[in-house]
Amino acid sequence: MELNIQQDKHALGRAAGAQTAQLIRNAIEQTGKANIILATGTSQFQTLEQLVKEDIDWGKVVMFHLDEYIGMPITHPASFRKYLKERFLDKVAPLKADHLINGEHDAEQERRHLNARIRQYPIDVALVGIGENGHLAFNDPPADFNTEEPYLIVNLDEQCRLQQMGEGWFAALEEVPVQAISMSVKQIMKSAHIICSVPDSRKARAIKNSVEQPVSPLYPASILQEHPSCRLYLDDASAALLAPALK
Questions:
Q1: pTM, rounded to two decimals
Q2: 152: part of which helix (H) or strand (E)?
Q3: CB of 222 closer than 8 Å to CB of 145
Q4: Which ranges of the chain does DSSP label H, i.e. alpha helix?
Q5: CATH number of 2-246
Q6: CA gap 104, 208 in Å, rounded
């Protein structure tokens, strides 16, 4: 895991987005195509803002995304499909393909459909974040590090749901769904390159645990320590609790 600490979330986003773009261009140059995973949430605002400005042949890119609430209509402000359409897909040229998770379909049927799709596409670059509880995608602690299933139906713990409310996506905890379809930890780790963007002081404890604790399902994002090409982009606030030697 390589740490890249920027002064603020805007500088973080510019750096992470530019690096992501270069990795996508490299994949296209080497193989004629690029397969990517995109994350959502407030941690990705600035990274995606930079990415859509980059010069990329999007017609050679296939996109998957990390997770979506079960039962969530695309019209809801918290819909991750809505998020990706408005913040990414509507701002770039048409992709070769985009595989958005439809939380309104039968969840098990949608999961199986996604599993069949993603198994056909080795991932070149994955964008991810880290939750306040240390989750990676919606793999809350204790996360399943062993399943080979690419996508899972998961239960969301209270800390995870409180984060979604705290970020302003929902007005009350009761409104936050209790289940989601989430990409598994092992599927994320199969990506050739991982760009992990994590701004803000509320993520500082999760960052410290993910970087300094031994790899453990209790700290799901700690598994990124074992990835051969993971760049962790932080700002001064999210890096505040790291040991001085790491800064």
A1: 0.96
A2: strand 151-155
A3: no
A4: 9-31, 45-51, 80-87, 107-118, 158-166, 185-189, 204-212
A5: 3.40.50.1360
A6: 36
Phi then psi dihedrals of residue 95, to 5 deg: -80, 165
Looking at this protein, which amino acid is placed at residue 40?
T
| Chain segment 225-236, per-residue pLDDT in tens | 999 999 999 999
Instruction: With H, G, I as helix, E, B as strand and everything else as coil, classify residue 239.
Output: coil
| Token representation of residue 21 | 């773009």
82 vs 88: CA distance, rounded Å: 10
Query: How far is Cα 152 from Cα 168, in angstroms, rounded to an integer?
Result: 25
Contact 135, 159 (CB under 8 A): no
Before 142, cis peptide (omega within 30)?
yes
Helices H, strands E: what count in the chain?
A: 7, 10
d(CA 188, CA 202): 24
**β-pairing, 61-65 with 34-38?**
parallel
> Which residues contact residue 22 at a Cβ distance below 8 angstroms, ignoring those fewer than 6 apart?
none
pLDDT confidence of 239, banded at 50, 70, 90?
A: very high
Domain range annotation of the chain: 2-246
